[in-house]
Amino acid sequence: MDPFIDISNTTIESERLILRYWQMGDLSDFYEYASVPGVGEMAGWKHHESMEESKKILSLFMEEKDVFAIVSKAEEKVIGSLGLKKSCTEAFPEYQKLKMKEIGYVLSKDYWGRGLMTEAVRRIIRFCFDTEGIEALTVGHFIDNYRSKRVIEKCGFQYVGSGEFYSSQLQKSFPEMRYILLNSPNPM
Predict the structure, then answer these.
(1) H-helix or E-strand spanning residue 18
(2) What's the predicted TM-score (pTM) here?
(3) Could you tell me the domains of the chain?
């Protein structure tokens, strides 16, 4: 099952981060990290080439109401995003009846290696399981995206198989690894 989670009125805090609904005032911060070559490509999308392109995608985030802006408390700026999308359960029929979401994330290259995405994902896991009653979360990473793999492992996800992700933006297929985290009384 794929329940819709409207995050437009949700604000979640962790030690160093605020996860909240996007605002049009975030456009400059969004473009700043999304325009860096190599950042989006690790998630299957082409880095942004104009502020107008970022504005269109930001408007989509706001319309769909399922992607959090990740805000650095120290710098009071948006440094990434974390979305709750439909889970790709077709590849794993044993999980299809669970109330599930897929998480996807991207972080500004300037903030890599600080444990911030692990902090954000752990907080979203608690939100999904404790507040939204989600029974399982899925996530994936391209086979050579070792940074994302470490976040996934640190957050307790279990490897369930590999597959292929086709990026229409990049017109290319990527081998990927797929993971699941089942809700339990103490998921972390």
Answers:
(1) strand 17-21
(2) 0.91
(3) 11-182 (3.40.630.30)
